[in-house]
Amino acid sequence: MAKVVLKLGNDVSTDVIYPGRFMATVLPAETPQFAFADLVEFNAKLKAQQIPGGSVIVAEKNFGCGSSREQAVSTLKGHDLVIVAENFARIFLQNAVNLGLRLIEAPGIAASEGDELQLEAETVLNKTTGKSFRISPLPQARQAIIDAGGLVQFTRKRVLSGMKK
Amino acid sequence: MGMTVVEKILARASGRQSVKVGDVVEPRVGLAMSHENAALVINQFQEIFKGTGLEPRIWDPLKIAIIFDHRVPAESPKTASNQKKVREFVASNHIDKFHDIRGDLGGICHQILAENGYVRPGSLVVGTDSHTTSHGALGAFAFGIGATEMASVWSLGSVLNVEVPGTIRVNVNGTFPRFVGPKDLILHLIGKISAEGANFKVIEYHGETIREMSTSGRLVICNMSVEAGATSGIVPADAETVRYLREEADVDETLDIVEPDRDATYERTIDIDVSTLEPQIARPHTVDNVAAINDVIGKKIHQVVIGSCTNGRLEDLAVAARIVKGKRVAKNTRMLVFPASWRIYQEALVRGYITDFVSAGAVVMNPGCGPCLGVHEGALGDGEVALSTTNRNFKGRMGNPNSEVYLCSPAVAAASALAGIITDPRKGDGV
After folding, report:
1. Domain B5-272 sits in CATH 3.30.499.10
2. What ipTM score was computed for the predicted complex, to two decimals?
């Protein structure tokens, strides 16, 4: 069971997830402190470790739009958050696949802060409202990178197999 | 079955006769661009080689471009240290296409790539910046990627597991009215199809308006195609592309013009007639919150920004300079101008634009990303409103979540700077 800790709307940009003024901080180990820095209360809870790993942010359409900054993914991954949205912007989705941030695309998703979600393979069940939402599977091309444990591992294998040829 | 331009580019870059939407390919990369975030790319590149027993090796240093633009000159010791790390990496890996913080070579990455002739029609360009879509203006398939993806490109020379995107065809016809141009066109399109209307798709631009548009204007529309979610925007290369690369970018090698097949398949076709288009404004806090200027005329503004990879080219500065020449920026309004490159800056000096701006009370800043992304300079105060020719107006974009950013063309920005309120440039006195 996973609790919805934040509910957001359409077009949540990477400027909101990880404001530009923190972009000089790049390393995945250092970015989590700035997650949603301008949502001051939520950021404070994250930093105080009051939000357990596996908690869920629910959003509507086009989550992660805007900049290609990978910090927007590493900052959420660092808190082990799961994002459930109607759909995701392209670069953010690819960065999440590459770094292993769990994204769930669930068209029509309806949930409020505090709701308990059951995240299954093909559906998201909102235990609080009793409603269930079908998950759109990731394209196979992306699933292969997730299965490898991320793009660093995927490419490492390719580099090594290239050497053997 | 016929192919679109991007399908043709992907087929060729992947060594295939043809591809269709949804195919998964591994295209070879023609150019791989990064800016300051090369610091993170270097980190991830070294991670890839960890435990392999191999020395990290770049597939082809000649195909990598690194440009400092986001925070120049460095705003903090942290940025300066990252830039130093990148500089050392560039030297030890023999990366020649490196543009440091210099008045002769520097500028914003997307302008630097174009004006130095680094982009070829028909090639595949990736960049660790979402506005890499700009280079579709030269007939390339260009898209933004993250830093880890770039580290993978540096290692392999290809992009792994690319799904061939569908294409939306946009036909643009008619002649722009006075003080209406490419920025108004792209804002109009984004407003029409929404910020996610082209997500995971390519927008291919056609029509007489596009054929007659300069490369400078094409860079505007391809740059902002990503604001409709597009993987890329592309203008099929033509005589203007050849002219630009020959005359303005000193490219003398043979150019490969890739056109779409007549029977190419498009997911959707959109027709736009610009002959009745009005100046367009994107209101806070999304780029698709677009209105004709009449809806926002008179809005009080505190800061006007003219520049960026979207509208910091000579054409843009010329329009703005003509409007402010001999006049004064309104009291309690700040006007900031940042050209897209030092080459443009120098030409603007020669043509007198810089004097026109400064005499009017504008502050001319060094070329770079400047205030656009709120990192470096030109931040807004609480409750302040900016009117800007840049490409994003997300909450907090200019460094303060308690401020607002409106987006517009250089003509609207300049006319509004003089009045201190959003002003229709068509109603100016004798400009």
Report:
1. yes
2. 0.96
